[in-house]
């Protein structure tokens, strides 16, 4: 008899950490409905869908790293390198598209491997390592950018593909959705996925029971980098001429999406679906601010405040709050029982 | 807990960036709108021939700058026409400096000069081989790798410097549009410490660079921004004042340029919705012309994105491709019927046009008033071949960095330089001839004075 309510409470506690993002989306929709209803139209939503998906893909990569208790600040460099490779190796020839994509993914995997070895293997600080690796990559991109004409374009076939429509929406959106679903399924139904989360939640215990924690961390950085590259390749197609700074705006956004998506910053718990939703919330928020004509300076302020708000109602804080309430209720129940006895 | 601290720090950083970025905007009226003659033509809706015949000679018959080793009378009229179009001269002092700089724009360079120019363009520091004692600094808020316009302007300055045997070394820095103003400031300070004799550049962060500019002047280093790159408009809080805090600023009369843009929209659109686009938030160039465009727009036009106040810019694209589509999307979502834009950056429009396709809005009944003349937009326009879609432009202005070099060299030889070297402008309508698919790079301005063989080396890959 006691297990059912206990399970329900557990389910509620776990679910509660992901609630803020959906509440935030609901609030955004309400505000938009009153202020800028055009933003909720099908055409407007389909226009921002690929950009929301790009943020979601990078945020999902960041989420994998945060699950392991790490953080990755090499996102802009990796994403930019992938976009530059689409220009450099793409050589404005459709025939080169597959090679360019593979090269971009391969280069990103290598960056992730370096991050992973330095952090998971040598136990260096993730913040410093990824920041430094990101700087190295940006330097490489600047050098690499000299090997092809500045502002050169990606192959026309690639930019055309990213601007086509599948069921009325850019294929970039569907790509983001498929990646999200794959991660959801992987976390829930595969041993690898479950082990990945367990290791993130308690690396010491995992190590004790024989799980290779460092391999887990290295894998996380590699898969994350591949996701950044995927976003970079797609962004290159959307921009046509991405230049060598295309990823500059992807430093704070993915981290913000993971935080607002309710991930535990101490590792372990995160929801791909909530992260995906948070990415669209941030993209929608940005779009709404531009649509209502908010001055750029205020846009920065609002974006920063939203992240602080996300921190204040983060999953960890909610869980602690719920646990405190339950603990005090249990204590008062026990006191009442004693008095009655 | 540590993670939370990091995230919190990043969030605070975002706020600081916001504060710093908005710090560039400040107080009142128009920029130095000195004695600029009426250089703007009525925006003809038919052809490029708009104003009077081009004024391609010095204001007086004799060489007025002989004492400073310059000769405005030697300016090739064809190059003046290429760089500026059929303009009327600006004030005599400015016009002579402009012509003197164009007089040095040799289009028939020998291979050794081309090789040296390429070396200087690709490296932070180079020895010009002249044995000269002077060191030229070039401080760009953008950079060769991030923007074609910036890389061409850099090359113009280098080619100009190579015509002065007194200049023995060129040191270049590029902030690559970094959103952290400290990067721009530190690069200027690096040039000061390097001991350059003068600095030519574009101050993307405007007034936030003022302190470093004053430090340069205090160290005896001449600072000359070009492309109307005021270090904050003179009436902005914290701005450095040209002629006092730094030698001079080279560029168009911004208010006249803004009025020209308004005239194009007034005539070309007639009635309907129009929008303004700009660069980095609060930058002096955009602020300078936007103020005067707003006040000169016809009452039949409705500005869909008015600036928050006269010290704010609007339609901030940061001239940064990844941001530009977002700005267009924001405008077009609620105003799909925008009939005209004013913007200083033609290439930026090219980055924004795909949003029309995203939103299913046809590119038609559209009038653009632009400053620069990147080929990719003009070729895209030619391809669309829609008679209701018209573009008017002034000039790319890459050559203004040459004028900056010449102004600095004249000052070092004792010449009095006006606080604003006014470059005249005229609006021209884009025709099919303005699309040249054989240019070395699709994004190169047609008005650049860098010879094509040098451009081919720069952008040949």
Defining key terms:
heterodimer; A: 341 residues; mainly alpha; 15 helices; 75% helix; globular; B: 461 residues; alpha/beta; 6-stranded mixed sheet; 5-stranded mixed sheet
Major sheet size, sense and barrel closure of chain B: 6 strands, mixed
Give the distance, in angstroms, between the N- and C-terminal Cα atoms of chain B: 48 Å
Uncertain runs of chain A: none
Major beta sheet summary of chain A:
none
Computed over alpha carbons, the radius of gyration of chain B is 21 Å
Q: Roughly how much helix do the residues of chain B carry, as a percent range? A: 25-40%
| Number of strand segments of chain B | 13
pLDDT average of chain B, as an integer? Answer: 87
Uncertain spans of chain B: 11-54
What does it look like?
The complex is a heterodimer of chains A (341) and B (461). By secondary structure, chain A is mostly helical. Helix content of chain A is 75%, strand content 0%. Chain A contains 15 helices and no strands. Chain A has helices at residues 3-16, 19-35, 42-67, 75-88, 97-121, 126-144, 156-162, 171-189, 191-201, 203-208, 213-239, 252-260, 272-291, 296-312, 315-340. In chain A, α5 (97-121) runs antiparallel to α6. Chain A starts with a helix and ends with a helix. The longest helix of chain B is centred in the first third of the chain and has 21 residues, at 2-22. A 6-stranded mixed beta sheet of chain B has the order 8-7-9-10-11-13, sandwiched between helices. Chain B has a 5-stranded mixed beta sheet with strand order 1-3-2-4-5, with helices on both faces. In chain B, strands 6-12 form a two-stranded parallel sheet. Chain B has helices at 2-22, 77-84, 92-103, 111-122, 148-161, 181-194, 210-218, 254-269, 284-296, 324-334, 346-358, 375-384, 400-412, 452-459; strands at 125-127, 134-140, 167-174, 198-202, 222-225, 249-251, 272-276, 301-303, 338-343, 366-370, 389-393, 420-422, 428-429. Chain B is α/β, with parallel strands linked by helices and 461 residues long. In chain B, α5 links the parallel β2 and β3. Mean pLDDT of chain B is 87; it is low at 11-54. Chain B has 14 helices and 13 strands. In chain B, α11 crosses α12 (375-384). Chain B starts with a helix and ends with a helix. Chain B is globular and about 60 Å long.
């Amino acid at each position: 008899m006691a297990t059912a309510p206990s399970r329900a409470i557990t389910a509620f506690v776990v679910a509660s950490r992901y609630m803020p993002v959906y509440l935030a989306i609901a609030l955004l929709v309400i505000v938009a409905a009153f202020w800028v209803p055009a933003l909720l139209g099908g055409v407007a939503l389909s226009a921002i869908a690929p950009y929301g998906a790009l943020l979601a893909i990078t945020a999902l990569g960041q989420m994998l790293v945060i699950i392991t208790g790490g953080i990755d600040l090499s996102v802009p460099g990796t994403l930019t390198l992938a976009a530059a490779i689409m220009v450099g190796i793409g050589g404005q020839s459709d025939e080169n598209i597959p090679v360019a994509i593979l090269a971009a993914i391969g280069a990103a995997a290598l960056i992730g491997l370096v991050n992973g070895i330095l952090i998971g293997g040598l136990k260096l600080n993730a913040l410093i390592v990824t920041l430094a690796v990101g700087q190295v990559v940006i330097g490489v991109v600047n050098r690499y950018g000299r090997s092809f004409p500045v502002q050169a374009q990606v192959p026309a076939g690639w930019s055309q593909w990213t601007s086509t429509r599948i069921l009325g929406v850019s294929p970039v959106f569907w790509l983001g959705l498929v990646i999200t679903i794959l991660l959801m399924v992987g976390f829930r139904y595969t041993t690898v996925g479950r082990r990945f989360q367990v290791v993130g939640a308690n690396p010491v215990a995992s190590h004790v029971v024989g799980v290779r924690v460092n391999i887990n961390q290295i894998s996380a950085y590699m898969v994350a980098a591949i996701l950044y590259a995927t976003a970079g390749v797609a962004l290159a197609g959307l921009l046509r001429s991405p230049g060598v700074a295309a990823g500059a705006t992807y430093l704070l956004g993915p981290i913000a999406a993971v935080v607002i998506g309710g991930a535990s910053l101490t590792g372990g718990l995160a929801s791909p679906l909530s992260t995906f939703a948070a990415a669209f919330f941030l993209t929608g928020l940005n779009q709404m601010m531009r649509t209502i004509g908010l001055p750029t300076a205020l846009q920065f302020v609002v974006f920063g405040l939203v992240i602080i708000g996300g921190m204040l109602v983060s999953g960890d804080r909610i869980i602690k709050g719920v646990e405190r309430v339950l603990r005090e209720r249990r204590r008062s129940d026990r006191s009442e029982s004693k008095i009655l006895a | 807990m540590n993670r939370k601290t990091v995230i919190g720090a990043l969030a605070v950083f975002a706020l600081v960036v916001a504060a710093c970025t908005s710090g560039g905007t400040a107080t009142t009226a128009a920029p130095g709108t000195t004695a600029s003659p009426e250089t703007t033509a009525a925006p003809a809706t038919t052809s490029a021939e708009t104003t009077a015949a081009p004024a391609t000679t010095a204001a007086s018959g004799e060489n007025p700058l002989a004492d400073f080793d310059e000769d405005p009378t030697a300016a090739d009229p064809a190059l003046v026409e290429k760089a500026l179009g059929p303009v009327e001269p600006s004030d005599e002092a400015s016009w002579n400096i402009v012509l003197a700089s164009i007089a040095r724009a040799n289009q028939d360079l020998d291979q050794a000069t081309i090789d040296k120019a390429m070396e200087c363009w690709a490296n932070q520091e180079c020895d010009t081989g002249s044995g000269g004692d002077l060191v030229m600094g070039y401080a760009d808020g953008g950079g060769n790798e991030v923007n074609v316009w910036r890389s061409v302007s850099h090359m113009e300055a280098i080619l100009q410097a190579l015509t002065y045997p007194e200049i023995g070394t060129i040191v270049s820095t590029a902030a690559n549009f970094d959103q952290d103003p400290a990067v721009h400031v530190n690069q200027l300070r690096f040039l000061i410490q390097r001991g350059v004799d003068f600095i030519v550049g574009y101050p993307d962060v405007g007034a936030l660079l003022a302190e470093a500019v004053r430090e340069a002047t205090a160290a005896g280093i001449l600072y000359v921004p070009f492309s109307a790159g005021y270090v904050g408009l003179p009436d902005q809080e914290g701005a450095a004042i040209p002629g006092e805090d730094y030698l001079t600023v080279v560029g168009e009369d911004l208010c006249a340029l803004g009025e020209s843009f308004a005239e194009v929209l007034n005539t070309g659109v007639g009635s309907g919705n129009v929008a303004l686009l700009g660069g980095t938030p609060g930058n002096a160039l955009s602020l300078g012309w936007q103020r005067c465009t707003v006040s000169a727009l016809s009452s039949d036009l409705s500005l869909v994105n008015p600036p928050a106040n006269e010290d704010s810019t609007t339609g901030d694209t940061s001239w940064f491709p990844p941001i530009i589509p977002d700005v267009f999307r924001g405008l077009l979502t609620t105003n799909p019927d925008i009939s005209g834009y004013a913007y200083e950056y033609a290439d930026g429009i090219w980055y924004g046009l795909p949003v029309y396709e995203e939103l299913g809005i046809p590119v038609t009944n559209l009038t653009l008033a632009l400053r620069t003349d990147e080929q990719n937009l003009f070729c895209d326009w030619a391809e669309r071949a829609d008679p209701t879609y018209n573009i008017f432009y002034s000039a790319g202005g890459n050559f203004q960095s040459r004028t900056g070099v010449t102004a600095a060299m004249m000052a070092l030889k004792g010449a009095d330089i006006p606080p604003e070297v006014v470059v005249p402008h005229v609006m021209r309508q884009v025709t099919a001839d303005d699309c040249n698919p054989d240019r070395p790079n699709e994004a190169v301005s047609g008005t650049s004075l860098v010879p094509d063989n040098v451009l081919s080396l720069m952008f040949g890959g």
